[in-house]
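Reply to dn_fold:

You asked what the input looked like. This is it:
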Amino acid sequence: MIYEERRVVLRRGALPDYRQIHLDRAWPALRSVGARPLCLLSGLIGLPAEETYSFTGYRDIATWEDLQQDAVGAASREALAERAGLIVEESVRLLRPSDERPNPETPATDRRAVYGMRRFSIRPEDWPDFLRYSAAGVWVRIEAQDARILGLFRDAATTNPLGVTLLTGYHGAAHWEATRGWRERPAAIAPDLWELGARAASARNAITLSTHVCLMNAHWPEDS
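and this is what came back:
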């Protein structure tokens, strides 16, 4: 699959209207043509609320290109016009999903209110090790603390450094803070699991050139 990351900066105060259009009209339209809308996020900490990101999966790049021509939702031109009036700027980047996440479906029980959208820069040759340290170590520990990994992506184009995006869900900002690896081990987490996560995080940090995270509010359709 190929994933589209769409960044949309909205006019001040336009988030509620944009959210409604995206979830009530765009999301069903995407699903009707076989695309997979993964999430809609808006800035909470580190980005303004008017800066939004949506992630959508397509079967392949040819399918994505075909749907650009069709505008995915051209059946509702009025909705597209409404959306255009809310936007200050818009851009798209293409991403390749990892072999581990996203899962084929995201059950409602795995959805979270807040997501850490973490960007990494790594050397392209380190991608297999980065994925292994994440999936077999860091994620095991963090999901034991009731966080949920939504998706791990790399830029579709191979560049040096390579851009990597990780989406991890939390119940809130305090939950995100509680999962930081430098904090004291929670009593509910087994020592060997905590140590596994710590070793994997250290190994991943060693091959990470740079990283930063923004906390984002998640928006989900009510009927999916």
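The chain is about 35% helix and 35% strand.
Hope that clears it up.
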